[in-house]
Amino acid sequence: MKIKYFTLILFLIFKLLYSQNCPEKINILPMYGGVKKCKEQIESDKEFLAEMDQLFPNRQKAMEDRVKSGWKYFYENDLDTAMKRFNQAWLLSPQSYEIYWGFGNITAMKGNPKKAVKYFDTAKKLNPSNSDFYVSSALAYSQIFLTEKNSNFLKIAIRDLETGLKLNPKNGKLYSMLSTSYFYLNNIKEAKKYLKEAEKLEPSSINPEFKKILENK
């Protein structure tokens, strides 16, 4: 009886030590936090990949499915589940720009705009012709500006927005954000100019309260 009890104690100790070697909640961090996974997590990844290989004709298609699911949860404001899906997509095929765009958006929304910027930079490199990345990146730099009150970050945001406009001159969000950025720099003339352009292209991108404030300047 004592031997059985002792064996059970050893098993429980081993189980505890084994679980302690597994970093927790890494699936809600971009690229699993860049940490070394434990044996159990590696085996779980292998099982997931094998399952995806059975369900889809190739890993590109499987990755696209996970990305689609990631955006779904992102727009439902379920950021942790969205991150889990983008991580699965990264595991399947790490060269998709949308994965890093997702990482950046979620990281920024969780209050870490400085960390988010590097993911937007990766997305830009993978797909340099998409102007929407520059909207996301500029938003992150604007967040940093609002926290640190350093106008240099706002100037970086403006550079991003201007680059985005070169790629897509009909993106109303870019004009709207430029208007806001110049307003914070106290350049009312430029702020009004870009607001006018935003109204022509995408009126829904304009905050009505901001428009009212600017019109009274």
From TrEMBL:
Record's GO cellular component terms: cell outer membrane
Record flagged with keyword Repeat: yes
Taxonomic superkingdom: Bacteria
Pfam family for this entry, one: TPR_8
GO BP: receptor-mediated virion attachment to host cell
Keywords: Repeat, TPR repeat
PANTHER family for this protein: TETRATRICOPEPTIDE REPEAT PROTEIN 6, UDP-N-ACETYLGLUCOSAMINE--PEPTIDE N-ACETYLGLUCOSAMINYLTRANSFERASE SPINDLY-RELATED
Listed name of the protein: Uncharacterized protein
Source organism (scientific name): Chryseobacterium formosense
InterPro entries (alphabetical): TPR-like_helical_dom_sf, TPR_rpt, Ycf3
